[in-house]
Specification:
Elements lengths: L13 E3 L2 E3 L3 E3 L11 H13 L4 E8 L12 E2 L3 H16 L3 E7 L15 E2 L16 E2 L2 H21 L3 E6 L4 H6 L14 H4 L1 H14 L4 E9 L9 H15 L4 E6 L5 H4 L12 H11 L5 E3 L6 H9 L5 E4 L1 H5 L3 H6 L14 H7 L33 E5 L3 H12 L3 E6 L6 H6 L10 H12 L4 E5 L6 H6 L4 E4 L27 E2 L1 H5 L8 E6 L5 H11 L3 E6 L8 H4 L2 H10 L3 E3 L2 E7 L1 E7 L23 E6 L1 E5 L7 H8 L11 E4 L9 H13 L38
Parallel strand pairs: 3-4, 3-13, 4-5, 4-6, 6-9, 7-8, 9-10, 10-11, 11-12, 12-13, 14-15, 14-17, 15-16, 17-26, 18-25, 19-20, 19-25, 20-21
Antiparallel strand pairs: 1-2, 22-23, 23-24
Helix pairs in contact: 1-2, 2-3, 3-6, 7-9, 14-16, 14-23
Length: 734
Amino acid sequence: MPRDRKYDVLFEPVKIGPKTSRNRFWQTSHCAGPGAERPGAQAHLRGMKAEGGWGVVFTEYCSIHPEADEYPYTSARIWDQGDVQNLGYMCEVAHRHGSLAGIQLWYSGGNAPSLESREFGRSPSQWLSPLFATRSVYGYAMDEFDIRTVINMYVEAGRRAEQAGFDILEVSAGDDTVPIQFLEPRFNRRTDGYGGSFANRSRFFIELLGALKRALGDRCAITTRFEMDTLHGPEGVEAHEDGVRLLERFRTEGVVDLVALKIGDYAEWGEDAGVSRYRKAGWMTPFIRQGRSLLGPGIPVVGNGRLTSPDDMVGLIGAGVLDLIGAARPSIADPFLPVKIMEGRNEDIRECIGCNICVSKFQQGGQIMCTQNATIGEEYRRGWHPEKFARTTKPCSVLVVGAGAAGMECARVLGARGYTVHLRDAERELGGHWRLVTQLPRLGEWSRVIGYRQIQLAKLKKNVEVHLGVARMSADDVLEYGADQVVLATGAPWQADGRSANAGPIPGADASLAHVLTPFQVITGKPVPGKRVLILDGDGHFMGIALAELMADQGRQVTYVCDAADVAEYGVFTMESFNNKRMLFEKGIKTLCSHWAVGIEPGRVRLAYLYRFGPDLLGPTTGAVPRRDNGGEFDLEADAVILVTSRSSDTALWRELQARRPEWPMHGVGAVFRTGDCKAPAQLNQAIWDAHRLAREFDSPHPAYPLPWIRERQLWGSPTVPQLGDPRINVEGE
């Protein structure tokens, strides 16, 4: 159907210096994992967004010099001609679809770990980097020659970027890069013409932008992504002080063609890219509105805010807050978001849920993943398209048992490929355990996982039937159903005996008792006795801390105990760790890290400090266990214990069917597969990916096992790989 005319404004072209974006959709620079070393993955991930209608597509942050070596984190790099060649392919693919290609020029100075290059970064002053747990990263203070050198590094990197085909050169002036380091008093302790007053501290940034503008501004758009407020108070940049004044300088100096505004630095990146548990869509709007008012009509403004609603986008443009809609996570969850708005298919938008799984995988050194979009990162190596599915050449009927998120995804993809699918579940609603998860505090937006798939399944009603509220299926039921193939997506409930990664069952842990509960028992209404509740978290993601908040909101006295060294430790990767700790403090939840339960009784829990035994307590023979005493153990009064310890796949039906494998042919069953949590408990992104992969490859020779995928790597002996003695290698003494 045609789009509503009110959305026409989103598809107006926008002039950005010497370039013009075909519309107002700007895919902000975001990490993805390919860097400059996997040009195929880099090009086709961004190219998919270009095909999906994003007028501008960006690299991740792109190091301009080996002094800004972020290894082991995978940045893009524009160090040399090899990088020009690799990133040039991304520009080619973006241009093929009519999009502008942007590169974010990055120099992190004294914050660069340089674990590959081993070079020292240069910084305004010398200080100990606050970004790395080792606290052993320093840069060296620049003199004026160094300042000229670093500015020239940017210009030369810009020239290489232009050669690669980039249209937009964005200077990163956030995330603790050098331009913002000069502006922040906590980093800039200089007493010369580049330190002290605001005019002096902003001088480097203005000179840098001016140099790029003079060298390349007639051919490339010169833009910046600027932290209007670093959230560090007067020692950082504050929106109402230096942030405002710098924007005024941008206007008067004429050194930029566009400004992308954000807040929060590297340490508090979780504010800029905040999880939906703590930051709702568009929460930065007041900051951006203030910035927009200062820049005037001549400098377009991009703003992020996890915007997925077309109405919100139109409202921000109509109110004069934004000129272009910036997006990282919404473009990951749905690369075709602009096309769907353009075609009047708003209900098909796969909305970001704000779980930050995407960035968490980068933070662990891996490639990008997404809970909503299983195809992200697979565009090149597996050839997956988020909106296109090859029709099966072997049509048959498939029974999918279990209508949780993985079962829904498997049925959706199978249906889109032309299979006849029956999706069955004993529950009366779709969503499986994820429907329970979304009932926890702050997790309502996570229901989008279910809602999107429910809509898509309804559109496939010609060949996909959904049966809910049916009796739990037995092996007899499955075999007699009449399906040619069977997929089991029966999930993974929480352990009821407290077993975890570090220990077996806890004495006294039995969720059939009134005072011991599993997470899903709590959510489905099992009474939680008394006022004193202990949360035992061996999972380390969101479940334990969400239940702690739920209990506190009910007025209970809550103690959160975990075996990790930090509360909800996965929050470090999803960038919600700081806000988790603020919430625990504000709600009066007591915490004990590096502890575990060694016994549970009515009214009390026996806890032990995990590191109470050392090598001096080992027995006389190798491998002997420590002598046990009561050191480090103590009792804590608790009326109820909630076991967030570990999960176990529900494989009962799988095992029954495997035992009756000889009977399959007589019932016409060709194969039985398991997927998602039924195979192994996993984060939801992995469970959905596994179900998606199975359905994509359902007519392969062995669907249970993934098909080979393209590995981008250097091969020893290849002409592109320098060998010892090659003039490209500088070996001391040769």
